[in-house]
């Protein structure tokens, strides 16, 4: 099942196009894409048998499938080869930081660069469907609504400023948490623990890996996070990025005005974003640092 946000309305995507949930359910479920998480089990049960008139749509009209998550967790150094390229040890427990809700945007459009050290990071994003607290790893997938594509865009200068650095601000500028194009439920995947993830920059593949290289799998992340906090329906978990980030190159390479990045995950789809420099680029920081996540 593919669940999406079309023109700010909750829809199911199918072969014939998009089925409007509010209309097809006779008003049982609201039109707001976020409302699917008000009672995820009931919504999922209805959606599996949903019927109605699907309409064609333009991919450009798709928004973030989870537009207003209450909590966004992100995991650093969670691919073995990414830790190696960063010259850092493989973490013994998940390295957790946050991205803020105002950074969330949809699967296409323009994103403003904030300086000359903005980096790309393809990430599988797990979306929580039912509350999770102290969940055993063997039952963690039961709490997942589905998976979507994410980019953990990162202003490395802001991210690595200070001692110790605080990652969250450098990863939370407007548009720095694009997700989409749809939320795909777990039964759609032959193996949700082994999906190809990639980033193309101006038509050249710069990241190409598989989620089987994760240090901590989705179930392990949910078990760890829920041992401390309560995960809420609609929460996002950015599960980490593989090798191939700009910071790990020699010399480092970052996004510039006019660049186009295409972010793809097997079984979910692709996002496409164009980078631009605002006319009056405001750079309140003149900081520097080292590191990646």
UniProtKB/TrEMBL annotation:
Pfam families: FAA_hydrolase. Gene3D superfamilies: Fumarylacetoacetase-like, C-terminal domain. Transmembrane segments: none annotated. Keywords: Lyase, Metal-binding. It is an enzyme of class 4 (lyase). SUPFAM superfamilies: FAH. This is HpcE protein. It comes from Mycolicibacterium tokaiense. The lineage of its organism: Bacteria, Bacillati, Actinomycetota, Actinomycetes, Mycobacteriales.
């Amino acid at each position: 099942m593919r669940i999406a946000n079309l023109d700010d309305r909750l829809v199911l995507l199918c072969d014939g196009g998009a089925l409007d949930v509010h209309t097809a359910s006779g008003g049982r479920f609201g039109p707001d894409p976020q409302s699917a998480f008000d009672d995820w089990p009931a919504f999922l049960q209805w959606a599996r048998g949903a019927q109605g008139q699907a309409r064609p749509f333009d991919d450009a009209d798709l928004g973030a499938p989870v537009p207003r998550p209450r909590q966004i967790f992100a995991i650093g150094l969670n691919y073995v080869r990414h830790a190696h390229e960063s010259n850092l040890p493989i973490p013994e427990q998940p390295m957790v930081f946050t991205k803020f809700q105002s950074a969330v945007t949809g699967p296409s459009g323009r994103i403003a660069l904030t300086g000359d050290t903005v980096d790309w990071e393809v990430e599988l994003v797990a979306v929580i469907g039912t509350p999770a607290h102290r969940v055993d790893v063997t039952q963690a997938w039961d709490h997942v609504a589905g998976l979507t594509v994410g980019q953990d865009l990162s202003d490395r200068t802001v991210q690595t400023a200070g001692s110790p650095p605080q990652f969250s601000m450098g990863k939370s500028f407007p548009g720095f948490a694009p997700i989409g194009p749809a939320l795909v439920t777990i039964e759609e995947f032959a193996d949700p623990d082994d999906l190809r993830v990639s980033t193309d920059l101006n038509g050249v593949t710069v990241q190409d890996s598989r989620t089987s290289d994760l240090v901590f799998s989705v179930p392990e992340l949910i078990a760890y996070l829920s041992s401390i906090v309560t995960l809420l329906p609609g929460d996002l978990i950015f599960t980490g990025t593989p090798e191939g980030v700009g910071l790990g190159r020699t010399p480092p390479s970052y996004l510039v005005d006019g660049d186009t990045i295409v972010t793809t995950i097997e079984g979910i789809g692709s996002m496409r974003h164009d980078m631009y420099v605002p006319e009056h680029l405001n750079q309140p920081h003149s900081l520097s640092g080292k590191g990646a996540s």
